[in-house]
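Long-time lurker. I teach an intro course on protein structure, and each term I like to show students one example going from raw sequence to a predicted 3D structure in token notation. This year I'd like something fresh instead of my usual example. Would anyone be willing to generate the tokens for the chain below so I can use it in lecture? Attribution to the forum is fine with me.
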Amino acid sequence: MAGILDLLNSDLGKQIISGVSGTTGNDSSKTSSVLTMALPVLMKAMERNSSTPEGAAGLMSALSGKHDGSILDNLGGLFNGGVDDSVKQDGAGILGHILGSKQQGVEQVIGQKSGLDAGSVGNILKVAAPLLMGVLGKQSRQNNVTDSSGLGGLLGGMLGGNEAKNEQNFLEQILDADGDGSVVDDVAGMLLGGDKKSGGIGSLLGGLFGK
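-- Reply from a regular --
Happy to contribute to a lecture. Here you go:
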């Protein structure tokens, strides 16, 4: 199964980056940086949320209904006419549901590293969240995911399975950033390579930081 960062490097991913960049008025390389950091975090949060029966049932319902992947069928139409406000509202709802009280801290961490303010990061994520759900919806259909264990396998597979323990710990730390500055600084240090024990993060986040 292709990982989420493989997706960003694909033709579909490039189309998403270009479209999100144009829609939000942000530089495409910074938009790419934000998505490269944010999508694994969002998926990790979904994996965490779907570990409960209620969370798994809610996500399965979304992926088999509104977020079945059809949004990806006409990206040209989605972006060329300007992304509809309903898509952004949907994205805001998805982010609030997935990240909850962690949303502000996550946006701050990603903003610090990408060189954008947290508001710009939030705008990028509002457009990207429905697209990520569409990707998951499409993958769940292709892999005949019908229950919580299948859902966990899908999310874990796209995150790189259990092979990337450092990356998993790193994602957990970003999700625990609460905006008070201390954890944010710690995680920003990890992103900058300050924590040598977390060298494996580079494999998850690719060559994004020029390391």
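Some talking points for your students: Confidence is low (pLDDT under 50) at residues 194-211. The radius of gyration is 16 Å.
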